[in-house]
C-alpha cells in the first residue's frame, strides 16, 4: 500500500490494481477490432483486410505477393495443401477494390482423357457456385468472384471461402 508522509494509506494495493485493470478495460475492444468478427463489415477488399477471414477459415499460411502485371494478391494455404489465390479486383484510383477473385489451380489425373475431364468439369459447373475450367491439358482452374460494392461482412467472406474450399475438394476429386 502507498502511504502519505504521515503514515496514512492513500490507496490500498488492491484498489490500485483494480483501478489499473478498469482503466485498461476500454482498450480491449479497440485492440480486438483487428481480429475476425462475423459482423465486421469490410468496406472494400484489400490484401490486408481479407486475411482475418482466411485465417478464421483455417488458412495455415498466408503470403502477400504481386503478380507480373502489378496486381497484389494473397496466397492462402489450407490443410491438405489446398491453396487459394485471392486477388482484389475492380479497384478505384483510391486503391479500394470492390471485387475479390478467388482461384485455385491443380494438376489433373494423367489417366483421364480430355473428354472425361471436360465432362467432369461440366457436371461440376451445373451444380456449383464456383466455375471450374480446363486451363490446359493437365491443369484445372477453379474460380469464384465476390462483389462487395457496398461492403461485405467478414462472416460472409468466411462462408464464401468455406463454400469455395468445398467446391475445390469436389472438383479435385472428380479430376484427379
Walk me through the topology:
Blueprint: E1 2-3, E2 9-11, H1 13-24, H2 27-32, E3 41-42, H3 51-56, E4 61-66, E5 72-78, E6 82-91, E7 97-107, H4 114-127, E8 131-136, E9 139-147, E10 152-153, H5 154-175
Antiparallel strand pairs: 1-2, 3-10, 4-5, 5-6, 6-7, 7-9, 8-9
Biggest sheet record: 6 strands, antiparallel
**Arithmetic mean of pLDDT:** 82
Strand content: 25-35%
Inertia-based shape: globular
Helix/strand order, N-terminal first? EEHHEHEEEEHEEEH
Integer-rounded radius of gyration: 24 Å
Which fold does the CATH topology of the largest domain refer to? Yope Regulator, Chain: A
The CATH class assignment of the largest domain is Alpha Beta
Helix content: 25-40%
SS-based structural class? alpha+beta
What's the N-to-C terminus distance? Answer: 71 Å
Structure, explained:
The relative contact order is 0.15. This protein folds into two domains: 1-32, no CATH class; 36-175, Yope Regulator, Chain: A (2-Layer Sandwich), CATH 3.30.1460.10. It has a six-stranded antiparallel beta sheet with strand order 4-5-6-7-9-8. Strands 1-2 form a two-stranded antiparallel ribbon. The protein has a two-stranded antiparallel sheet with strand order 3-10. The chain is of the alpha+beta class and 176 residues long. It has helices at 13-24, 27-32, 51-56, 114-127, 154-175, and strands spanning 2-3, 9-11, 41-42, 61-66, 72-78, 82-91, 97-107, 131-136, 139-147, 152-153. Helix content is 34%, strand content 33%.
Amino acid at each position: 500500500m502507498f502511504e502519505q508522509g504521515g503514515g496514512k494509506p492513500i490507496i490500498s494495493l488492491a484498489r490500485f490494481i483494480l483501478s489499473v485493470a478498469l482503466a485498461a478495460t476500454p482498450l480491449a475492444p479497440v485492440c480486438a477490432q483487428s481480429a475476425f468478427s462475423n459482423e465486421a463489415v469490410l468496406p472494400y477488399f484489400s490484401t490486408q483486410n481479407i486475411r482475418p477471414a482466411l485465417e478464421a477459415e483455417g488458412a495455415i499460411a498466408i503470403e502477400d505477393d504481386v503478380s507480373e502485371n502489378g496486381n497484389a494478391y494473397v496466397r492462402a494455404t489450407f490443410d491438405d495443401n489446398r491453396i487459394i489465390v485471392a486477388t482484389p479486383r475492380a479497384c478505384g484510383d483510391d486503391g479500394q477494390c470492390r471485387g475479390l477473385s478467388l482461384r485455385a489451380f491443380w494438376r489433373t489425373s494423367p489417366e483421364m482423357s480430355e473428354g472425361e475431364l471436360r465432362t467432369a468439369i461440366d457436371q461440376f459447373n451445373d451444380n456449383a457456385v464456383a466455375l471450374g475450367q480446363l486451363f490446359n491439358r493437365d491443369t484445372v482452374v477453379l474460380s469464384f468472384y465476390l462483389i462487395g460494392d457496398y461492403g461485405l461482412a467478414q462472416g460472409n467472406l468466411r462462408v464464401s471461402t468455406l463454400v469455395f474450399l468445398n467446391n475445390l475438394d469436389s472438383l479435385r476429386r472428380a479430376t484427379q
